[in-house]
Amino acid sequence: MSEKPAANTLPFRQHIAAQIECMDANPADSKLGILRRRDEAALAEAEAWDTLGGRADLYGLSVAVKALFDVQGWPTGAGSQFLDKSEPASSDAAMVAQLRRQGAVITSQTNMTEFAFGALGLNPHFGSPRTPLDPDRQRVAGGSTSGGAVAVACGFADLALGSDTSGSIRIPAAFCGGVGFKPSQGRYDSRGMLNLSPTFDVPGFIARDVETCARADRALARSEPVLKVPDGLRGHRFLVPPKFALDYADNDVVRTFEEAMKALKAAGARIVERDMPELDRYGEVAIEGGMIISEAFSLHSHMLEEFADEYDPRVGPRIALGENVKAHAYFKARHELEQLSESYRSQLAGFDALLTPTVPMLPPKVADLETDENYYSPNRLSFRLTEVANRIDAPSVTLPFDPKLPVGVLLTGANNDDQSLLALSQAVETVFRSSSR
Questions:
Q1: What tens digit of pLDDT does each residue of 376-428 get?
Q2: Residue 1 has what pLDDT?
Q3: Which residue(s) pair with 108 in the sheet?
Q4: How much is the mean pLDDT over the chain?
Q5: Superfamily in which the 12-220 domain is placed by CATH
Q6: Is the pTM of this model over 0.85?
Q7: What pLDDT, on the 0 to 100 scale, is given for residue 191?
């Protein structure tokens, strides 16, 4: 792989040109991670911003967009072979338009798990992106924002716009050595994003550092005053539920997480270990209530009638099961999640964040997931830790302790306290970078 171009060190047009060259120099990664490119248009837009003197909050940032956001002129295929043949979008999704107005340039549309229904990043139609942290390119990039994570990790883009239903931003970010930010519901305008489960879906970002995510957040959520990044971690408190966090974790994940906790303690942070048995319940509630599949079926019923045979066989039949979900089971689950949200807020009081690994395992090999028997268990395990934030609507950030390892450390905060969590994550990132040198 050629050397990644650094963001914001060159005139914007030159920076985009370097990223285009990087894509051309790495055809295997770009072919699997990128569905569409707009090289000439991106270069022209970057040059126009250069001419204006860079007077925009997101000047200098290139953005890769997950294929479930509308981008004018491209079909919003969502990783599906039949939607990829549909008419191009006539206008940009709200977030795409906002990013452009703030000076960012859209460079590509990225691959994904079909309809965002899968956490490992497999796609039988367009190929399955692989994590660049595996030199042999045998291991999954994670999903469903698989192509976005690869685009950032390979230096094809500075920022990837993705979506997160159960961990779909944070899992691939962790598997590819990057940073992933899942905000609270409603923080950004999600019009023009194709949903899987509106109750849990939220748009967010993948980048190589927290500051890039925070920069995009500041540009899109302008109503809040900018918070200062903490100068160190002394006085900050983290809650670690050891049984939930580590019971199913691979040895490499446990070792990396323990090293991360040591680094945080050495930096003055206080870490309190306290089991929270109810955390295991968050995911079970959503499954028992059929929440995701029932909401997905309500959005897909008309497409399943016409295109059932063209769906990924691991996606279409599962969505079809949503037709059988009982209304009382669905609303019972919603009510229980509301109660669990209250319990979480109560237990997090006095702490800055809940701290766990991001994914309990290392990215599996694509070849090891060929059969359904071998696919569904690791797929479910992969979002065991990340889905907590989606079920209770909390902001969550994954960052690498060592960016050369496909292991993330997950910080989950309190509902609507997104900016505080991002500021804290920047301080944690500083500690991790000094510790892993």
A1: 999 999 999 999 999 999 999 999 999 999 999 999 999 999 999 999 999 99
A2: 39
A3: 37, 64
A4: 96
A5: Amidase signature (AS) domain (3.90.1300.10)
A6: yes
A7: 98
* Domain boundaries of the chain, sorted by first residue: 12-220
- pLDDT given at position 223: 67
Question: Which structure tokens are listed for 229?
Answer: 């990044």
- Give the alpha-carbon dihedral of 36, 64, 179, 338, to 10 degrees: -100
- The angle at the Cα of 381, spanning 261 to 303, to the nearest 5 degrees, equals 130
